[in-house]
Write a structure and sequence with these properties.
Layout (H helix, E strand, L loop, with lengths): L1 H12 L12 E5 L3 E4 L15 E4 H4 L1 H4 L6 H14 L13 H6 L4 E5 L2 H7 L4 H8 L4 E3 L6 H18 L5 E4 L3 E6 L2 H21 L14 H14 L7 E6 L10 H7 L4 E2 L4 H11 L5 E3 L3 E6 L2 H21 L10 H8 L2 H10 L1
Parallel strand pairs: 5-6, 9-10
Antiparallel strand pairs: 1-2, 1-4, 2-3, 4-7, 6-7, 8-11, 10-11
Bound molecules: zinc ion.
The site of zinc ion (ZN) has 5 residues, from loops.
Length: about 350
């Protein structure tokens, strides 16, 4: 089908590391009856046309009218059930938790990503005020917990936008999260992304913030082996069985977005890890670190080489966002409440499990 071929191509184009890391971001295509959404736990760059989960739009719309309990866990479980029930017969996979948001946009194609270049704005102290100036037609969404709450809030804001401007927004900027671009044709999606990038790059240049983030250098095999050996004596659980490392960079010391928390945890361990230090960290944070920052290196830890690498990649992405955010009043970390919600979020842990 033409529609699926196009959204697959867009998923690959906007599935590079400039736009997403790990299983981040999602895409969709729709006609009047059906919305095809990227399945949860998959990566954009690896999608094939048959992978998209076909969802019956009218059945999914039941979500908008069903009363939901206030308790987040019970609510997300109910939402998951409604979403599963809306999946068309013969279609496989679990739809992305952001599927209802995709459904709420009338445009044929929706491409949601988390580019560091854009998050430099979305995760900055002056992000909202600056976005109003730079992108007056974009819809800005104040930070809200992902999942059902986010979808319903965006749906309401899209409706208000429509009342005001007579059409839906093409650009939606989500505070401490990323961007949604929607359009009826693929060329228009590409154009909108190119415009947003060009405008932001010009702002970074104006603020003397380098558009090219300095490339991180790999650690020598020797140094990595040495760290692996030292870490294995300190970290003894499966959470930290594998490590990846690069030479030092200015890593973020707090939570930036839901994806950063999912892949690299809210806070890194700073310094050479010791048994006592790690025990104190676990005592304070409730988890083992996924990122360790020493004087001369940054390490990612995980249950597999892939998850260790992803923890490190998200740490690098976080550093880029901190770097870009300097142009807009500096980085704005997530609140303790917002952070705790993600740390306890079942849906995301499902995604991470799928990612391995
Ligand atoms: Zn997202």
């Amino acid at each position: 089908m033409e529609l699926l071929a196009t959204i697959t191509r867009l998923s690959h184009q906007f599935g590079t590391s400039d736009y997403v890391k790990g299983g981040g971001g999602n895409t969709s295509a729709k006609d009047a009856q059906t919305v095809w959404v990227k399945p949860s736990g998959t990566v954009l760059s690896g999608l094939k046309p048959d992978d998209f989960v076909a969802i019956d739009r009218s059945r999914l719309a039941l979500l908008y009218s069903t009363p939901t309990p206030a308790d987040p866990q019970t609510r997300e479980a109910l939402v998951k059930d409604i979403m599963s029930a809306a999946v068309c017969p013969g279609s496989q996979g679990r739809p992305s938790v952001e599927a209802p948001l995709h459904e709420s946009l009338d445009a044929r194609f929706v491409v949601h990503t988390h580019p560091a270049l854009v998050n430099g704005l979305c995760c900055a102290n002056e992000g909202k005020a600056t976005a109003a100036k730079l992108f007056p037609k974009a819809l800005w969404i104040d930070y809200i917990d992902p999942g059902y709450t986010l979808c319903m809030k965006v749906r309401k804001d899209i409706h208000e936008y429509q009342q005001r401007y007579g059409k839906q927004p093409e650009i939606i900027l989500l505070e401490n999260h990323g961007i949604f671009i929607s359009a009826n044709c693929d060329k228009h999606i590409e154009q909108l992304y190119a415009d947003v990038f060009a405008i932001l790059k010009a702002e970074y240049v104006k603020a003397s913030v380098a558009v090219e983030f300095p490339a991180v250098r790999p650690l020598s095999a020797e140094k990595l082996a040495c760290a692996r050996d030292a870490f294995s004596k300190v970290f003894t659980t499966e959470h930290s069985a594998f490590i990846a490392g690069v030479e030092t960079f200015a890593a973020a010391e707090g939570p930036i977005s839901p994806d950063h928390i999912v892949y690299s945890k809210s806070f890194p361990y700073i310094g050479i890890p010791t048994k006592e230090g790690v025990a104190a960290f676990v005592q304070q944070r409730g988890y083992e670190p996924a990122v360790v920052i020493t004087d001369d290196a940054v390490y990612g830890l995980g249950t597999s080489q892939k998850s260790a690498q992803l923890a490190l990649e998200l740490a690098i992405d976080g550093a880029m966002i901190v770097h870009y955010a300097r142009a807009f009043g500096g980085i704005q970390f997530m609140s303790d409440r917002a952070r705790a919600f993600i740390e306890n979020w079942e849906v995301e842990s499902y995604r991470k499990k799928q990612m391995g």
